Amino acid sequence: MPTLYHAPQSRSSSLLVLVEEMGIGDQIDVVEVHVRRQDGSGGPDPRNPHPEGKVPYLVAGTDHLRERGAIVAYLTDRFPEAGLGRPVGHPQRGTYLSWLFYYQGVMEPVLVLDWAKVDHPAVRATFRDLETVFARLSEALTDQPYLLGKSYSAADLLLSSPFQWLPEALPEDPAIRAWVARCADRPAIAAVAAREAALV
């Protein structure tokens, strides 16, 4: 059984939402660990096998996965019957993977750098800027409710997740705001939030 290492109210919470959405809670062992927080609290946890003490981290047999995009791709491939991914051979497979990797390699770095007020021509040339990221999202969402069309997918879960913990980053674009609201209104998010609120 795969083991997911998770710290409540952290980036790994979105992986718990994914597990809830997919209905695979009985097939994933979740281990709660401590991590160092932005406010300086917490610290390394010897139970956490992540080489940098981060979360999420997934161990599945001899496979060790870190980074949310990789774990999302792995779980949706491993449990295709849940319908939140796009399996090999699906006509949207490339688009699905592109969104996952765009989040990991472009969108999250840009959001964090903007939040930290870090600006440099090299940063914009490498990762783009916030306006460009929002333009890509808006283009995808102008004529459809979700990134891949009419149905919600794990790509929507991942790419909408930062606006749950950084709502001030949400642009005024009506298509993006409506999409984030739809994603935030999912029962799985409410279920995970309620469980985590009970822990603090």
Automatic annotation (TrEMBL):
PROSITE patterns assigned: GST_CTER, GST_NTER
Superkingdom of source: Bacteria
Gene3D superfamilies linked to this entry: 1.20.1050.10, Glutaredoxin
Transmembrane residue ranges: none
Limits of the GST N-terminal domain: 1-83
InterPro entries recorded: Glutathione-S-Trfase_C-like, Glutathione-S-Trfase_C_sf, Glutathione_S-Trfase, Glutathione_S-Trfase_N, GST_C, Thioredoxin-like_sf
Residue intervals of the GST C-terminal domain: 89-200
CDD domains: GST_C_8 (cd03207)
Cross-referenced Pfam families: GST_C (PF00043)
Name of this chain's protein: Glutathione S-transferase
Provenance organism: Roseovarius nubinhibens (strain ATCC BAA-591 / DSM 15170 / ISM)
